[in-house]
Design goal:
single chain, about 450 residues, about 40% helix, 13 helices, VC0802-like, 18 strands, nucleotide-binding
């Protein structure tokens, strides 16, 4: 029985060796047997993207390093592709891709530098090699498949070659014209995650973690019913399970909640992962192959009202103090303008009603630079600029939009030692407490137990 179109994305945490490709191929075969039409999106083999970036940054000894990557893919192919005919074919395809990669890296080494587009092209090989291998593994499991780069699949993006902006209007008809005929023939398209192309055909990238984003983009353009993001954990957790032993899988999230968690770095998701499918009927499921647990993300969400606690480290609070701030129109704009001119991203801004101080949360490595500039440029109205290290402990959940729920969280957080300040806006699904760095996980554990776990539904 036909069950609609599903986009299945397999991450590098799964695709670390032959067993990962076998597991992924078997999962796709199962979905096909259940009646789904399937589009597959793959990341590079685990660690390969980082290695390619390191080769670009430090090309010394690049050739043996590339050969180690080559042997990883060849070894995975020999283990994942059981058909002799398919193995011979994919080894030839991998060899062709590696020849191209070696030539590009050699050219960069000779010239001594690389353009942004050349660097993007080199880094894209992790996904391209992975897609070729996945297609062969699928065919070896009786599933007809063909691989395409993100550019060949029709995803058009412009701008920064490392963080290109997708052109939705241009991409949708291109993706549909490239992929729908393949799908209608009963063939599974295997598309490189993370990779897109310009109108002129140059390769660009969608930012780290961009394979999830690729999957939801394709789902939007093709009108898919569901996206499944396969990873090495059975879903999004209520907290980091490596730090809090009582962390558990969240069963349901709204898109708004999921976007906040992505921006906070949960599951290493691309911040734009859910953007393409917001306002559509497409569901996103996060799980691991063979698991009975998963996190379902859609426009509705569901209980409980509070979903997760996330710790963000490496933050500093830069606080501008002075009576000259009081009643002066445009002071906050001047302060943030200094940060903007320095290219420093402001994570949060806080100001009491007395207007005697303004605090900016920024990454720790940019705090002293910002403080120095603020002292120099605003010394006529500022008496002091303070810098203190902090961590952010965030509580996420649509229930925070309700006054009784948010009030309870504020009360609990305010009663904990080590809390510097609390930031929340009415209608927001996130409440942030800035805390002493050495208290962050203890505070996170208390908030997890006292305001998140109390809503547990078994």
């Amino acid at each position: 029985m036909a069950r609609g179109l599903l986009v299945a994305k397999f991450g590098g945490s799964l695709l670390r060796d032959a067993s990962g490709y076998i597991t992924a191929a078997q999962e796709v075969a199962r979905l096909r047997q259940e009646g789904y039409q399937v589009v597959v999106v793959v990341s590079a083999m685990k660690g390969v993207t980082d290695e390619l970036i390191e080769i670009l940054e430090s090309p010394s000894g690049w050739e043996p390093r590339l050969r180690r990557i080559m042997e990883r893919y060849y070894s995975a192919a020999r283990g994942a592709v059981s058909s002799e005919r398919e193995l011979t074919s994919v080894l030839g395809e991998l060899s062709r891709l590696f020849d191209e990669l070696f030539k590009l890296v050699w050219a960069v080494k000779v010239i001594g530098e690389a353009t942004g587009n050349a660097r993007a092209a080199i880094v894209s090989f992790g996904e391209r090699l992975s897609a070729a291998l996945m297609a062969a593994a699928l065919r070896s499991n009786g599933v007809e498949a063909v691989w395409l780069g993100g550019r060949e699949a029709g995803i058009i993006a412009e701008g920064d070659p490392w963080e290109a902006v997708v052109d939705y209007e241009a991409s949708e008809p291109m993706v549909r014209s490239k992929l729908l005929p393949v799908i209608e023939r009963g063939v599974v398209p295997v598309v490189t995650g993370f990779v897109a192309g310009t109108r002129e055909g140059r390769i660009v990238l969608l930012g780290r973690g961009g394979s999830d984003y690729t999957a939801t983009l394709l789902a939007r353009f093709l009108g898919a019913d569901e996206v499944v993001l396969y990873t090495d954990v059975p879903g999004v957790m209520t907290a980091d399970p490596g730090r809090l032993k009582n962390a558990r899988v969240i069963e349901r999230l709204s898109f708004a909640e999921a976007m906040e968690l992505a921006l906070l770095g949960a599951k290493r998701m691309h911040p734009k992962t859910f953007e393409p499918v917001m306002g559509t009927s497409t569901r996103v499921r996060i799980t691991m192959p063979g698991s009975s647990q998963s996190t379902l993300v859609d426009s509705k969400g569901g209980p409980p009202p509070l979903k997760a606690v996330v710790v963000s480290e490496g933050i500093s609070l830069v606080t501008v103090v002075g009576g000259g701030l009081v009643g002066r129109i445009g002071t906050a704009a001047k302060i943030t303008g200094v940060a903007a001119r320095l290219g420093i991203n402001i994570l949060a801004i806080m100001q009491p009603i007395t207007e005697t101080r303004v605090s900016l949360a920024v990454r720790r490595d940019s705090a002293e630079k910002l403080a120095k500039a603020l002292s120099e440029e605003l010394g006529h109205i500022v008496s002091e600029v303070e810098v203190e290290d902090a961590s952010a402990v965030s509580v996420v959940g649509d229930g925070l939009r309700e006054p009784d729920v948010s009030g309870n969280v504020v009360e609990k957080a305010a009663g904990l030692g080590g809390v510097k300040s609390i930031l929340w806006a009415p209608g927001s699904p996130i409440l942030v407490t800035f805390v002493e760095p050495d208290e962050s996980w203890a505070i996170a554990e208390k908030l997890h137990e006292e305001v998140v776990s109390q809503w547990r539904i078994d």
